[in-house]
């Protein structure tokens, strides 16, 4: 199925087979999706707004029922065990943590408390403390703000906090839903490096992005989702080189001509 | 002087009852964001089940009281699970009314079992009085004050220092995000209701003692008396509930003696509300509340 | 750019929250007709600056003048009436209202009718309602919202909401339009489409625009001048081509350690200035079926 | 149904460029027929239906519907949760008796006066509300109830003090006395005349709120509800909008109070307590917040369901009748009523309006909505 | 007063309106009261008391030997608006209302009753309604009761004339009534009400009020309040070691008190007032029969039962008169009411003199002492139908 280059056994990592997801009685959002995230890989998901990317993350992290959705058919396996129907708590404990779309930090808790909530399922205080330091090292901006109400942080700072919070659980699989949204280029780059670093540290990453350039540049493998089905998949490098994909998902610089036309129209 | 000290003592114990009743609201509001009108029902259940276990079954009073508190905690948690959880994060209004519906259902059940007359709960304090110098205070009031202080201290520590306290706050702020961190919103909600149930039950028992108003229908109304206290103290602050309770209790008692005639009939009944408004004008979030964080 | 009296003059603005300084000491001017961009790292104070401009935040010190009139001390609603409109970083739509009502709200301060005449559906109220809708329809069509104008905003996808916000701001017929990260969360073609709408609107409505954006490719392409903030201070204010090569900007914002990031960010600039041919297709068409044949250098 | 400015179905492809949508209040044929039927029923129903008990219940429902419409403006449309509504109803009620009874002025004076008196107080408290949100506002508004009751108890010359006052204001409009209605040789009982008066007012206020909510002032209220800062940045003046919502809401409450006073003929400060405020809140939530017909449907539910439950529980076998212990009919109906509220809200948190909308959609499927996936 | 004579009412001649079933010769009367909430216990006992009297009349063949009485109820939840609804619910099924509980409900029904010519027996002790034409009030007022109670104490111990008299009462009309009655009676020996301490029906802590009374040196206190307020009163008084003489209404007693710690205080310091007589004795035949009636269902006789009984006696007295007149339509009953000169109650209540426009309510009151051994209701009559020798103002 997956034409990936890593040839390990597919019972490792995350394996999604033939997954169909529905909201309420009638709205089918994902149709027979097959996805695989192998250990120590970064897998990117691309797709226009409303394609079903967030829905996929919800299916993986057990949050579907919170939104009135359910898995109609298919299976999701994590390290060989089916995790369909498990509650989010069990899934977090099994080593999957996530950064929700739209940051969702706890506005009226301090930055520090937000991180504490992130590590709430863990008991080892020393490990948590180290983890927290590691996160503050990664995002020094957060350290400066550690006793501030998180709601007052700037958009970008909140995004850093959301990522930091998810990392508190020392996950084996990190699900990131649009982590680069609203971040400065240097921070995006930082997060890109962080993702690469996380992978090196042994965690696999399921990365959902609008910034395809960023996503594909760090990912090992990529999927294109459209109207709830996978329309294309392949190693990230191949996708990055694919002209169709470039025109649909990659950065603005492709469209130079038109904008210039409009802009020059203004001055003309 | 003695007179004033005496009034002060009365105000403090009244304030503690307010505080206990207010705390129940505060816990649920803090953890689930729901404004729980059913709190009054817990008061009723706590009082009647203690009566049942003590006077009818014959258990010792303290055993009966503890069992009732546990029982009401359970009832509250079940209520949350069955009726409230689904609407808890809908909006502000729906849960208020669901809990109002629950409140309506409770007294009829009680009066079906125990009738509508006055009953005697049979508490051990009776009318015993402790005298400290010139000031007298009933044992029942001492019990109220001591328990309230303990409860509040425990809560303060709980919210500040425990994982669960943090989990509760997080869930209240954003249930989905908390869930995503592995915090079970169901557990947190149920637990907070159970605590509120226990507090309500305790308040009910104290109200039903001979030194209170006695055990009879209409006990649920008393929980509403705590509403201005909650706002005055800050709706999410356990400490606020206590300080607010004390302020209202003490000032109300003094108003009875020193102000009532000049301010017309029923003045002491509006005193809590006037105090609340006065505080609101200066601090819209209440004495110990935190300002809602908003930015764009 | 034309000189003379600037449309907007910000002088020595300082803004603190308790112990935190969001803006230290910022001064800049925006000329009429300019496309002015603000960039800077997260938390640099960009959004706070916009909040100062339209009266949501009161600065600790400094002055802001718009068309020669001081803005400080005015309420947001009054500033809106002077002709300043904006969109929001985290969307601030009226979720329980229809798309149309959201946009018509942009006309609010051009209308006068109160409760009473509205209640009676008589005279001015009635006339104004018709006029407001008539005025908003072109914008709604322009943004491709006609089919969903009676839907509640709540259920709509993110990208659509961004467009509604823009339509709502444009309905105010502002002189100065403030955009806070208008293309965040959009992919390339969507960005291009939105950018072209903004540029069209700018030309047709004779707008001056201040835009905050992290998409450097877009910034370099559309902006006349760029203000770079860092820790609440101006570190640069110049043409995009100059700004992106300023070492301080690179260090603070674009990412000084990594060559390729700079390349990436400046790629659009180089390409933009190199490319001269224009396509006839509208941007929205481009987003749909046609596959553009333009090539680009691979970022990695 | 609700405030609707949608264009005709034919226009959906917007063939006509830039044409402003039509602004008809009732835009479907069925809707127009419905309105006509409603108007005819207001007069025809009571004249042909003599059961004073049910008419009395419907009259109470009508008054509650008007009061709830007022609350709906504030809580539903403007987003300010208020538990103080009963206070304004009571101000209206006592004003009506003072102006209509003690001063002896006609209904054309006392009814608006009732509304205006309440609105003046409403305008005075509006600035406070600006600073409060959610449950804070709810509980602070409870204070209004306590304070108004306290004041009313202490001005016996107007309110009769603790004991309240009989209402002698007359429900007459020119030659028509609604309390003793007669048409030609036919004369009608009080409930019949009051039905016409009350439900005409329901109709009138339905029209007025619908108009407000589709025009500038009402739109601003909703905008402030959904996002106050954004509204301000768009040029909506918060203070003014808030005051508008309060004034309109309390004016309607005052008028409802005036009608309540003449309908009940005896009013007393303590009758306008918290329970009444909660009842109004129940009405708008059960009916459907921020919907035009919500208050009417909710009021019918809240007043008629207990009555029906009462009749029903009367025939339950295990219920005690008469003077002995056991669960009384009343307790049973309280229990069932509470249960119904809970079950209903769990099943349909959006209220009766949503139920009706669903039924209508099932009968007549809605046109395909072009939402989602911007293809 | 049960003039069971008079065979003038043959069914052929009887003009009847709503509430009369000609087939069974049954007259239905209605009650509007609250069967849930704090007032429900009172309501139920009143109902049982009424039923007991009707049972007795029916067992004896009915009024005028043939007309049986049937009792139905509707609930007012103790609210005026609900009372009107309840009224509309049953008005077409009843000939008259044999009880409407709660002064607000009674007042709300007055305009309607006047229009409908409905006769109403109020369960209220409010002096202000005594001359309403459609009402047939039967009880002594709060003013009379407290006046009699205090007078009883003072006459037993004339030294008490120099005592300080005070009121602890609700901050509503009830409290005012007590104040008025006490002011009236104390003026007879040149004393006055020193302090009127007020409280709200839901106040739980009365220390401040008690301190106020104690500081003022009050020795005899008239009280207005219900049974659920009494524990708080006793608690506060005990706390302050304060033992004045309390004059309480019978509403302030509850059966449960006899086994509660407050019983001793009640016994030492309180007397209660109300209608009735010796609740356990045999002198009064009516009381004895009531005590043994089936309607009480084995419950101990309380003053509330008597209260209901009194209302029922008034009803049958009126019906007799109307049947004599051959007209039990609404108009007929109203006319009978206007013609009725007085109603007597077999010694369980003073006479009501129905002089049109200037009625006189019973001035006598039974004085009870509290004794938990006299259990469990605890009220022991020490003086039946006592009227203050100083006289009672006819306006009460
Ligand atoms: N709770 C829900 N109930 C019903 N439909 C939903 C729900 N959540 C999402 N949808 C619908 O499912 C579709 C896919 O949504 P999803 O959020 O997964 O898309 P996405 O790819 O993440 O888009 P975006 O890029 O905007 O985040 C959309 O059409 C959306 O309207
Ligand atoms: N209302 C507030 N209260 C306290 N601190 C605030 C408030 N608003 C902003 N700040 C602080 O001011 C700083 C600047 O915030 P601002 O939102 O202006 O940043 P920004 O430049 O827009 O960043 P981003 O690109 O991430 O959106 C941040 O550190 C933030 O924490
Ligand atoms: Mg998404
Ligand atoms: Mg920002």
Short description:
Chain A: Keywords: Amino-acid transport, ATP-binding, Nucleotide-binding, Transport. The complex is a heteropentamer of chains A (268), B (296), C (300), D (375) and E (396). With 268 residues, chain A is α/β, with parallel strands linked by helices.
Biggest sheet features of chain B: 2 strands, antiparallel
Secondary structural class of chain D:
mainly alpha
The gross shape of chain B turns out to be globular
Question: What fold name goes in the CATH topology slot of chain D?
Answer: ABC transporter involved in vitamin B12 uptake, BtuC
- The overall strand count of chain B is 2
Class derived from helix and strand content of chain B:
mainly alpha
Shape of chain D: globular
Overall average pLDDT of chain B:
88
User: Roughly what fraction of the amino acids of chain D lie in strands?
Assistant: under 5%
Number of helices of chain D: 14
The percent range for strand residues of chain B is: under 5%
Task: Give the tags.
heteropentamer, C: 300 residues, alpha/beta, Rossmann fold, 10 strands, E: 396 residues, five-stranded mixed β-sheet, 36% helix, binds magnesium ion
Helices and strands in order:
The complex is a heteropentamer of chains A (268), B (296), C (300), D (375) and E (396).
Chain A: E1 14-23, E2 27-37, E3 42-46, H1 53-61, E4 69-78, E5 81-82, H2 88-93, E6 96-99, H3 111-118, H4 125-138, H5 140-144, H6 155-167, E7 173-177, H7 185-200, E8 204-208, H8 212-218, E9 221-226, E10 229-235, H9 236-241, H10 243-249, H11 256-267
Chain D: H1 29-48, H2 52-77, H3 85-102, H4 107-129, H5 134-153, H6 156-159, E1 165-166, E2 172-173, E3 176-177, E4 182-183, E5 186-187, H7 190-214, H8 216-226, H9 228-233, H10 238-264, E6 266-267, H11 274-287, H12 294-314, H13 329-347, H14 352-363
Helix pairs in contact in D: 1-7, 2-7, 2-10, 2-11, 2-12, 3-4, 3-5, 3-10, 4-10, 7-8, 8-10, 11-12, 12-13
Chain E: E1 15-16, E2 20-21, E3 26-33, H1 40-59, E4 68-75, H2 80-90, E5 96-101, H3 103-116, E6 120-123, H4 142-156, E7 165-170, H5 173-187, E8 193-199, H6 207-215, E9 220-223, H7 230-239, E10 245-249, H8 263-269, E11 270-274, H9 285-292, H10 303-325, E12 327-328, H11 330-339, E13 342-343, E14 352-353, E15 365-370, E16 379-386
Parallel strand pairs in E: 1-12, 3-4, 3-5, 5-6, 7-8, 7-9, 9-10, 10-11
Antiparallel strand pairs in E: 2-3, 11-15, 13-14, 15-16
The structure holds adenosine-5'-triphosphate (2 copies) and magnesium ion (2 copies).
């Amino acid at each position: 199925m997956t034409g990936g280059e890593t040839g390990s056994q597919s019972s490792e990592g995350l394996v999604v087979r033939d997954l169909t997801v529905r909201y309420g009685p009638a709205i089918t959002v994902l149709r027979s999706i097959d996805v695989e995230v192998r250990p120590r890989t970064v897998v990117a998901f691309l797709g226009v707004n409303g394609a079903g990317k967030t829905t996929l993350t919800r299916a993986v992290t057990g949050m579907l029922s919170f939104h009135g959705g359910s898995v109609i058919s298919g299976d999701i396996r994590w390290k060989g065990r089916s995790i369909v129907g498990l509650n989010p708590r069990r899934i977090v404990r099994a080593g999957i943590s996530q950064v929700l779309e739209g940051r969702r930090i706890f506005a009226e808790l301090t930055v520090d408390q937000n991180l504490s909530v992130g590590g709430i399922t863990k008991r080892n205080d020393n490990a948590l403390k180290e983890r927290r330091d590691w996160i503050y090292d990664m995002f020094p901006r957060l350290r400066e703000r550690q006793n501030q109400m998180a709601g007052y942080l700037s958009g970008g700072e909140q995004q850093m906090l959301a990522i930091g919070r998810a990392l508190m659980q020392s996950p084996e699989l990190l699900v990131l839903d649009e982590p680069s949204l609203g971040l400065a280029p240097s921070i995006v780059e930082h997060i890109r490096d962080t993702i690469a670093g996380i992978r090196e540290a042994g965690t696999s990453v399921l990365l959902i992005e609008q910034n395809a350039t960023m996503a594909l540049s760090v990912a090992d493998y990529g999927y294109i989702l459209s109207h709830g089905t996978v329309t294309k998949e392949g190693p990230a490098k191949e996708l990055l080189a694919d002209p169709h994909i470039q025109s649909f998902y990659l950065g603005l610089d492709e469209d130079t001509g038109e904008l210039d036309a409009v802009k020059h129209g203004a001055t003309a | 002087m003695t007179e004033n000290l005496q009034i002060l003592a009365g105000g403090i114990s009244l304030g503690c009852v307010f505080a206990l009743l207010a705390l129940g609201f505060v816990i649920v509001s803090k953890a689930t964001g729901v404004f729980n009108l059913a709190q009054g029902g817990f008061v009723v259940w706590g009082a009647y089940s203690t009566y049942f276990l003590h006077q009818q079954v014959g258990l010792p009073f303290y055993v009966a009281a503890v069992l009732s508190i546990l029982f009401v905690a359970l009832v509250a948690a079940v209520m949350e699970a069955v009726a409230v959880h689904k609407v808890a994060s809908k909006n502000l209004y729906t849960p208020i009314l669901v809990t109002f519906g629950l409140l309506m259902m409770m007294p009829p059940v009680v009066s079906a079992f125990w009738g509508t007359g006055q009953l005697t709960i049979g508490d051990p304090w009776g009318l015993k009085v402790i005298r400290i110098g010139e000031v007298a205070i009933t044992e029942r009031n001492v019990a109220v004050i001591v328990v309230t202080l303990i409860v509040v201290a425990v809560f303060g520590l709980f919210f500040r220092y425990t994982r669960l306290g943090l989990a509760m706050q997080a869930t209240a702020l954003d249930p989905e995000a908390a869930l995503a961190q592995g915090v079970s919103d169901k557990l947190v909600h149920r637990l907070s209701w159970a605590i509120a149930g226990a507090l309500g039950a305790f308040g009910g028992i104290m109200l039903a003692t001979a030194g209170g108003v006695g055990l009879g229908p209409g006990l649920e109304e008393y929980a509403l008396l705590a509403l201005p206290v909650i706002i005055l103290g800050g709706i999410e602050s356990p400490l606020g509930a206590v300080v607010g309770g004390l302020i209202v209790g003490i000032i109300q008692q003094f108003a009875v003696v020193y102000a009532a005639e000049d301010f017309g009939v029923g003045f002491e009944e509006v005193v809590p509300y006037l105090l609340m408004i006065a505080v609101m004008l200066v601090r819209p979030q209440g004495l110990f509340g935190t300002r809602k964080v908003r930015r764009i | 750019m034309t000189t003379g009296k600037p449309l907007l003059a910000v002088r020595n603005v300082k803004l603190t929250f308790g112990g935190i300084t969001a803006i230290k000491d910022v001064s800049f001017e925006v000329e009429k007709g300019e496309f002015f961009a603000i960039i800077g790292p997260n938390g640099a104070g960009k959004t706070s600056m916009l909040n100062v401009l339209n009266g949501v935040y009161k600065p600790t010190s400094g002055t802001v003048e718009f068309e020669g009139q001081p803005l400080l001390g005015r309420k947001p609603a009054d500033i809106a009436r002077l002709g300043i409109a904006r969109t929001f970083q985290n969307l601030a739509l009226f979720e329980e209202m229809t798309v149309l009502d959201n946009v018509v709200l942009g006309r609010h301060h051009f209308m006068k009718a109160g409760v009473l005449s509205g209640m009676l559906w008589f005279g001015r109220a009635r006339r104004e309602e018709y006029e407001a809708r008539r005025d908003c329809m072109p914008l709604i069509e322009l943004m491709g919202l006609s089919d969903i104008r009676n839907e509640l905003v709540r259920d709509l996808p993110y990208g659509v909401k961004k467009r509604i916000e823009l339509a709502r701001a444009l309905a105010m017929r502002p002189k100065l339009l403030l955009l806070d990260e208008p293309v965040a969360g959009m992919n390339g073609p969507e960005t291009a489409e939105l950018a072209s709408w903004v540029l069209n609107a700018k030309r047709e409505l004779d707008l001056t625009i201040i835009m905050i954006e992290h998409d450097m490719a877009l910034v370099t392409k559309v902006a006349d001048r760029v203000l770079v903030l860092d820790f609440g201070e101006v570190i640069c204010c110049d043409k995009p081509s100059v700004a992106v090569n300023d070492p301080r900007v690179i260090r603070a914002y674009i990412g000084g350690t990594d060559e390729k990031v700079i390349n990436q960010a400046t790629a659009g600039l180089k390409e933009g200035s190199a490319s001269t041919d224009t396509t006839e297709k509208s941007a929205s068409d481009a987003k749909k079926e046609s596959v553009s044949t333009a090539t680009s250098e691979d970022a990695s | 149904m609700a405030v609707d400015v949608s264009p005709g179905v034919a226009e959906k492809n917007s063939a006509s460029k830039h044409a402003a949508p039509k602004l008809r209040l009732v835009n479907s044929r069925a809707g127009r027929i419905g309105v006509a039927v409603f108007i005819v029923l207001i007069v025809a129903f009571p004249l042909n239906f003599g059961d004073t008990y049910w008419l009395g219940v419907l009259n109470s429902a009508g008054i509650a519907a008007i009061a709830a419409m007022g609350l709906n403006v504030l809580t539903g449309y403007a987003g300010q949760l208020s538990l103080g509504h009963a206070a304004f109803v009571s101000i209206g009620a006592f004003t009506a008796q003072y102006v209509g009874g003690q001063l002896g002025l006609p209904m054309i004076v006392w009814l608006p006066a009732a509304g205006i008196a309440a609105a003046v107080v409403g305008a005075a408290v509006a600035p406070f509300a600006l600073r409060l949100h959610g449950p804070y506002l709810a509980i602070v508004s409870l204070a209004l109830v306590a304070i108004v009751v306290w004041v009313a108890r202490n001005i016996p010359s107007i309110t009769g003090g603790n004991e309240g006052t009989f209402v002698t204001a007359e429900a007459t409009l020119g030659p028509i006395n609604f309390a003793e209605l007669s048409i030609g040789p036919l004369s009608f009982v009080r409930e019949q005349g009051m039905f016409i008066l009350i439900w005409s007012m329901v109709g009138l206020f339905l029209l007025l709120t619908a108009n407000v909510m589709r025009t500038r002032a009402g739109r601003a209220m909703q905008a402030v509800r959904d996002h106050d800062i954004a509204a301000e940045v768009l040029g909506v003046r918060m203070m003014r909008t808030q005051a508008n919502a309060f004034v309109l809401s309390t004016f309607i409450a005052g008028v409802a109070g005036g009608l309540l006073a003449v309908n009940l003929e005896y009013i007393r400060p303590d009758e306008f307590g918290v329970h009444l405020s909660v009842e109004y809140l129940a009405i708008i939530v059960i009916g459907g917040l921020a919907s035009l017909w919500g208050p009417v449907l909710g009021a019918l539910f809240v007043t008629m369901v207990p009555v029906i439950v009462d009749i029903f529980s009367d025939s339950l076998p295990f219920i005690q009748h008469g003077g002995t212990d056991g669960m009384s009919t009343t307790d049973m109906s309280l229990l069932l009523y509470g249960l119904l509220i809970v079950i209903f809200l769990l099943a349909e948190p959006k209220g009766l309006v949503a139920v009706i909308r669903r039924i209508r959609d099932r009968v007549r499927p809605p046109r395909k909505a072009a939402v989602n996936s911007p293809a | 007063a049960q003039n069971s004579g008079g065979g003038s009412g043959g069914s052929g001649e009887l003009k009847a309106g709503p509430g009369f079933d000609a087939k069974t010769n049954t007259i239905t009367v209605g009650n509007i009261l609250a069967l849930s909430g704090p007032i429900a216990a009172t309501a139920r006992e009143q109902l049982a008391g009424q039923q007991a009297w009707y049972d007795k009349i029916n067992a004896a063949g009915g009024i005028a030997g043939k007309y049986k009485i049937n009792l139905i109820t509707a609930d007012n939840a103790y609210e005026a608006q609900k009372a009107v609804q309840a009224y509309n619910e049953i008005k077409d099924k009843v000939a008259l209302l044999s009880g409407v509980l709660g002064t607000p409900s009674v007042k709300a029904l007055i305009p309607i009753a006047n229009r409908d010519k409905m006769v109403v027996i109020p369960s209220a002790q409010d002096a202000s309604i005594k001359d309403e034409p459609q009402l047939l009030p039967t009880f002594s007022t709060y003013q009379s009761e407290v006046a009699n109670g205090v007078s009883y104490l003072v006459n037993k111990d004339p030294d008490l004339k120099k005592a300080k008299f005070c009121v602890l009462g609700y901050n509503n009309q009830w409290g005012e009534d007590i104040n008025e009655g006490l002011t009236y009676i104390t003026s007879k020996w040149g004393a006055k009400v020193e302090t009127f301490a007020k409280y709200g029906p839901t106040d739980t802590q009365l220390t401040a009020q008690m301190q106020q009374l104690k500081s003022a040196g009050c020795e005899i206190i008239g009280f207005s309040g219900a049974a659920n307020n009494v524990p708080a009163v006793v608690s506060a008084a005990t706390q302050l070691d304060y033992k004045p003489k309390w004059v309480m209404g019978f509403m302030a007693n509850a059966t449960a008190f006899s086994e509660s710690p407050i019983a001793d205080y009640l016994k030492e310091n309180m007397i209660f007032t109300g209608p009735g007589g010796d609740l356990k004795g045999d002198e009064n035949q009516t009381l004895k029969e009531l005590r043994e009636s089936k309607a009480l269902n084995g419950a101990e006789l309380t003053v509330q039962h008597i209260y209901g009984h009194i209302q029922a006696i008034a009803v049958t007295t009126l019906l007799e008169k109307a049947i004599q007149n051959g007209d039990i339509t609404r108009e007929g009953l109203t006319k009978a009411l206007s013609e009725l000169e007085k109603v007597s109650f077999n010694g369980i209540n003073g006479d009501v003199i129905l002089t049109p426009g200037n009625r006189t309510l019973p001035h006598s009151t039974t004085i009870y002492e509290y004794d938990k051994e006299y259990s469990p209701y605890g009220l022991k009559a020490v003086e039946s139908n006592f009227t203050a020798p100083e006289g009672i103002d006819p306006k009460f």
